[in-house]
């Protein structure tokens, strides 16, 4: 606006203008702008409230509403920036116009890209009056907390159709094995059923061939260990390793709880961060979710020995222990592995990690300069070492699995299914 | 604890600041006061005041002229105006006034290092004489010794009367303008306190002054007008008004714009990139260390081991460090690499790994060859 005014002054000056006249024009302009400032609504005349969900799922779009109320007799044009953290998508500034003695609702949509608990305390607003020569800035304090929980898409997919979810893994949800598991129900005999399982008493009663069906035993104990150490902070294509591990843990927990098993969860790094004692029933899934949603990657190395010791003192019943961790870090920690040997006398132990895609690319990159060649050779050395260590420990009966990042949940669930179906617990 | 250390830092900083201010004040105080140069009232080492006082006492005619040249007498009364090293170029109007003054039959002395452009004078540049002392030839054939710092020499016209010259060119000349005369010399330094008594400077000055035909009632004026900074042509005369208005408005506009831009609107964010970790950080660090230590051999062995492992896994070829054996086994089933190349690689590799030191070029070459071998094994 002032630029336009200046341009006009300059044009006048080409025609010839006195300096005093110019100064007067400037002062007049200032006076008009001050008048405009005087006529914009006062800072106390505007009030703001925010409506937002208390809980958001990561990666899903939610709507947040801000209500603006104007108690003054004059209208205003406003711009707003909400103080949501940078992990959210921020379609700012929001603009709008509010009439005198009126209220408007401004909506915006946002997606959280990282889990956690966030405090949202402020709203930044700038508004101007009729001419828009001055803008007033207010930052009302609107306190609010938002919980961003892990992406539960995989869990929901599993709960909707377990078999569909595990299709790619080639795993059947319920494998019938003769004489194993507990009696489930009696149903009509179909070709292919084991003739030895025919329930002759019912067949005689109903004049139709009936057969017994069994299902794996339930009420088992599953302990899920989630590593929050330094190595879990490594960036993947979407999110980091801990993010994927949490999603997979939630899916396994859902699967186990649905089957009627007891699930306990431990989050740890240098020491124990979260412990959820074993419990059964789908309601327990919420408890687990609220306990682990705010787990963050720690800067320290994880202490495997401490967590295994802790678990042994808490988990007295024979249980399946599923550790989500980084395989390289895990293998480098000799003390934890030694401790694991003792643990395995009572419990079933499985470790599941995410394949290091970066390392694999580094190991196969071309060697165009010395630095690249060096990085390549170190990556190859590291891969070779991990492979050797893995073979060594697998020979002793430890199960260490590495999968791609998007299939972590599926392979964790199939690991669990396999154990249950084979009745190993 | 933290608070105390902060306070300590601030205290130290304040002490140093005070020390700095105090010291700089003391240092400043010891320096001699600066006086404006070439002013007849200023006791500066340029010596104009001394010259003025001498003329005042000896001739009793010296005066000062600090008004605008337009008010100089325009009738012939034999006035002399002494203009020593003007600090700015007078504008066209003022130049015309000076011209009128001279043409009316008065004298003007101009002592200036480079008077190019004033009164249609022209100069040319000469190589500076390193010795600084030159022999001057006067009009009457006499020789003088003098110090010259100016690298400019006057260009005389046919009507000019050359007063002084040296080998390089004309140093002082007299030019007739209308009824009056203009005496120009490129040597304002002769009147300087430290030089006036050296060589033949005093004699030269008197000689030049004597060239002016003076009578009893003629006055000698020292021009102060050309030294007063406020008389210089201001910006208002140099630039058109519309440009000045634009500048003034732009200054105000910039202040407003800076205020608008400088006021923060919105939160302060820490970029996510600051906290993100990558899984290859460790190997990058180790690689940098290897590179600095020039562990080329270790690096090559690691790469060879990797290929060896791949050969075992993919092709079932056991090497156990003996690469020469691998050539036949590999080349019989190779798909991409020709047999002779495999032969060359495997045999060469055995030798390279045994070498005590490997050069950078060799290292790169063998890294690339191992890449080729690895690709051969990996592609099915």
Report on the architecture of this protein.
The complex is a heterodimer of chains A (425) and B (380). Chain A has 13 helices and 17 strands. Chain A is α/β, with parallel strands linked by helices and 425 residues long. In chain A, the strands form four sheets. In chain A, strands 2, 4, 5, 7, 8 and 9 form a six-stranded mixed sheet that branches. Chain A has a six-stranded mixed sheet with strand order 14-13-12-15-16-17, sandwiched between helices. A three-stranded antiparallel sheet of chain A has the order 1-3-6, with no helix packed on it. In chain A, helix 6 (241-258) links the parallel strand 12 (221-227) and strand 13 (262-268). Chain A starts with a helix and ends with a helix. In chain A, 35% of the residues are buried. By secondary structure, chain B is of the alpha/beta class. In chain B, the strands form two sheets. In chain B, strands 1-11-2-3-10-9-8-5-6 form a nine-stranded mixed sheet, sandwiched between helices. A two-stranded antiparallel ribbon of chain B has the order 4-7. In chain B, strand 8 (161-165) and strand 9 (170-177) form a beta hairpin. Chains A and B meet through helix 1, strand 7, helix 11 and helix 12 of A and helix 6, helix 7, helix 8 and helix 11 of B.
